[in-house]
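Reminder to self: tokens first, then the designed residues, so the page reads top to bottom the way the pipeline ran.
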């Protein structure tokens, strides 16, 4: 198993090319494959070790070990290639995936009033409606729906079955008491180099666009409500959701299944733990957890106290 390198190389050659420090004893070791610790058996296999959980398995292998700075003291000298960015090194070693087809698949539907760059790709089953714009080198994968008023920048990847620019979930009460859907004409803007995983939904804004910032990454099943702003470089794990007009700052991280209430503002670089419920503003750089989301340490102390009291009651 594992991944075969496009070109075999010694650890010394690889460390010269990609950086880090290789022990002198391992520099001449020839590498042909890259594997996780539990699968490595041969001396020509580079073992990738990023977590102490797999340390014992990695040490049982016979090949050189690519490890992080934190794990380096726990790996015997003479076997290590130590790097501060192990995952980046692995990405470089594996190379780019095969390129997708160019232009639009004949099984896609693109309205005549849509604008699609020549270098963009629209996959089978996707629908791009009149008034939508797709920038160069972007990919709209299978069975996506792109509504009018959606503007997608360059090098954006939209995963299969995403729905972009549908009317948001907004309602108001008419004088006679009936519920009336609020018009959403603001559209959606997705900036360059952003990526949306499969089955994401991004609702149109009301008067101004819902916005996904440059280089932001959304995992599968993420919902972005109307008027939301996702900052540049933010990362959102699967099944998280943002209610209308919420804001996520640049570089912020949101764990899986977290929920962000309407109009909540999360500062740049903040971290939201998985399953959190954010119902108010979060300062820049803060780390929060729980529902309602509070400082992670406060949440952990509260849980410890809860478990302590539950243990006393059982006695």
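Designed residues (315 positions):
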């Amino acid at each position: 198993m594992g991944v075969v390198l496009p070109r075999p190389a010694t650890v010394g050659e690889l460390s010269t090319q990609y950086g880090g420090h290789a022990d002198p004893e391992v520099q001449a070791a020839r590498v042909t494959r890259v594997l996780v610790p539990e699968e490595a058996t041969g001396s020509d296999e580079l073992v990738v070790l990023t977590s102490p959980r797999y340390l014992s398995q990695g040490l049982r292998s016979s090949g050189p070990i690519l490890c992080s700075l934190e794990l380096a003291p726990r790996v015997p000298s003479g076997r290590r290639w130590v790097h501060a960015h192990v995952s980046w090194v692995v990405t470089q070693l594996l190379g780019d995936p095969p390129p997708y087809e160019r232009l639009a698949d004949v099984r896609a539907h693109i309205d005549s009033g849509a604008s699609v760059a020549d270098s963009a790709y629209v996959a089978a089953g996707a629908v791009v409606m009149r008034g939508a714009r797709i920038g160069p080198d972007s990919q709209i994968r299978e069975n996506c729906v792109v509504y009018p008023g959606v503007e997608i920048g360059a090098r954006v990847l939209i995963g299969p079955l995403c729905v972009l620019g549908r009317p948001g979930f907004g309602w108001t009460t008419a004088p006679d008491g009936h519920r009336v859907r609020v018009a959403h004409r603001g559209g959606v803007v997705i900036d360059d180099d952003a990526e949306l995983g499969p089955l994401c939904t991004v609702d149109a804004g009301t008067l101004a666009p819902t916005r996904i910032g440059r280089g932001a990454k959304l995992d599968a099943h993420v919902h972005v409500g109307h008027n939301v702003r996702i900052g540049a470089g933010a990362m959102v794990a699967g099944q998280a959701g943002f209610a209308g007009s919420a804001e996520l700052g640049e570089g912020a991280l949101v764990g899986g299944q977290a929920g962000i209430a309407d109009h909540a503002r999360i500062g740049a670089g903040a971290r939201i733990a998985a399953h959190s419920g954010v119902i108010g503003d979060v300062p820049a750089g803060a780390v929060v957890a729980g529902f309602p989301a509070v400082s992670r340490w406060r949440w952990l102390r509260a849980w410890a106290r809860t478990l302590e009291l539950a243990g006393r009651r059982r006695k």
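The longest helix spans residues 296-314.
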